[in-house]
Design goal:
151 residues; mainly alpha
């Protein structure tokens, strides 16, 4: 998550309450000051990627993001009993470093990245293994606008 907490131990809420944090303060922490921003100070992965080599918190935010995406991806693949296609969209479609981080070392799952194609701009097929992986740039704001306009 860019600014939200994602999964947390529920006892954190109790701890913050016991320390005197108001409901509004806890809500702000969980919704606006957590995730990538809470770790690195930035919610934008582009800024995090630029600072990774010189800033340990940006590097940590990147590594935690990759870990969480890989964990979720592996869970989905296991729950579905395998997949034929994975589509990376949003910010992942615009950041080759993020795509590489997510997809490397997943050969046992049938995902073999094409090192020449993973650095190309979207749309691009970036795998040569059993599981196809496509990077496809999306415009979520435009899609939301179109849906609302049609209502």
């Amino acid at each position: 998550m860019s600014t939200r907490s994602g999964s947390i131990d529920p006892s954190i809420l109790i701890y913050l309450g016991e320390k005197g944090f108001s409901f509004e303060k806890i809500k702000r922490i969980l919704e606006e000051d957590s995730g990538l921003k809470g770790i690195s100070g930035f919610w934008d992965m582009r800024k995090i990627l630029k600072r990774m080599k010189r800033d340990k918190n940006s590097k940590l935010a990147y590594e935690m993001f990759i870990y969480e995406v890989k964990k979720a991806l592996g869970s989905y693949i296991a729950l579905l009993g395998g997949v034929d296609l994975i589509v990376l969209g949003g910010g992942m479609s615009r950041a080759p470093e993020v795509r590489k981080g997510i997809l490397e070392n997943l050969e046992e799952m049938g995902i073999k990245i094409d090192k020449k194609k993973i650095v190309k701009n979207s749309p691009v097929k970036i795998s040569s293994g059993k599981v196809k992986v496509i990077s496809l740039e999306t415009d979520e704001e435009k899609l939301i606008f179109e849906k609302i306009k049609n209502l």
